[in-house]
Specification:
The complex is a heterodimer. By secondary structure, chain A is mainly β. Chain A has no helices and ten strands. The chains are: A mainly beta, B mainly beta.
Chain lengths: 116, 109
Amino acid sequence: GAGVSQSPSNKVTEKGKDVELRCDPISGHTALYWYRQSLGQGLEFLIYFQGNSAPDKSGLPSDRFSAERTGGSVSTLTIQRTQQEDSAVYLCASSLVSAGAEDTQYFGPGTRLTVL
Amino acid sequence: AQRVTQPEKLLSVFKGAPVELKCNYSYSGSPELFWYVQYSRQRLQLLLRHISRESIKGFTADLNKGETSFHLKKPFAQEEDSAMYYCALLTGGGNKLTFGTGTQLKVEL
């Protein structure tokens, strides 16, 4: 089947605007993750959803960032009042059950966000 | 706090030469470590995980708890190995990956 998909692939926005990034996980995967890859830095964990449990938001850098997952499937990452430092590639991943080291996270192609 | 360090941003080797991509970690719990790879214009994908103790595409990695290292090795580099390699540590109760900054491997002919 299809892998993790993300849209848009590229987004250019002006400072101060809000943006929404979308992630469609692999069908049947209960766990969904968002990461951010900034220039010269590694991938940074943002947020994690597992089934109907409360999401782990410990990686969100500020209250301008939020994410939701509707119906246990599609997820949207929203960045309000974007700043230039938000420019990065935002990666979504999903996994079957989030069962530790034997579980595999499958990554999407990413959304490249540029804030002017 | 957990941390993954990949000291080399770029590693350039000749085809057929041995490769070692370094990874060191800092973590108070029992570490679960992975190597991810991103080939040009492709998405990030799992290469290997330490619990499997297997060789993937000729690559192996051994967890050394004494040295807190998980270096990735291959005895003979191939051109198709050129890619970005990320070392990652599973934390947060088994659901978060903490990544290193990555090493770009370039295999020259």
